[in-house]
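Lab manual, section 2.4: Encoding a predicted structure.

Procedure: take the sequence of the chain (208 residues), apply the prediction step described in section 2.3, and record the output as structure tokens. A sample record is shown.
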Amino acid sequence: MTNVPAVVFIIDDDPSMRAALEDLVGSIGLQVRAFASPQEFLDSKRPDAPGCLVLDVRLPGMSGLTFQKELARAGSDLPIIFITGHGDIPMSVRAMKAGAVEFLTKPFHHQELLDAIHSAIERDTEIRRHAVVVTELRHRHATLTERERQIMKLVVSGRANKQIAAELDLSEITVKVHRQQVMRKMQATSLPDLVRMADRLDASRPTP
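Recorded output:
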């Protein structure tokens, strides 16, 4: 994965707060993009890079908490740090339960926000890294024949060649050949490696 510079997105309708946050985040060498509203953010062309969103809770039109739900519904994994001058415990609990990285009440220490940003960017980088791995595994899995997929499923469930042969009404030699093909196409170095790949593929499938 190429080393793309991280970007911090800020949504705050207060121009002075927005400028202060831009200066703070920019002071540690991170790229910053600031917006006055969620709609401005949605209308913008955003770089495909690791990052996070610093989001004010109280915004005109759509609250930060509602926007958090909208992003989740749209399939966005962008980590969110909430900032507010009017926070309360139930509000912060709702935000954190919905996946927010941090919920900071103004005035907060600059370092608190910077620590939260670093944590959020690390999280997003890991999410992206995992997504690249899963995409590659899906490409490999797509090259398997239907029979090879059947055999892979049985192999990772712990069945021996003899058991697989009996279950699929094949010869043991045929099972061994298919098994070798599965290992080669999936680029698995060992059975535990293949099991890990299968687990990642299963975990990435949407729940019905």
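Check your result against the sample. The chain has a mean pLDDT of 92.
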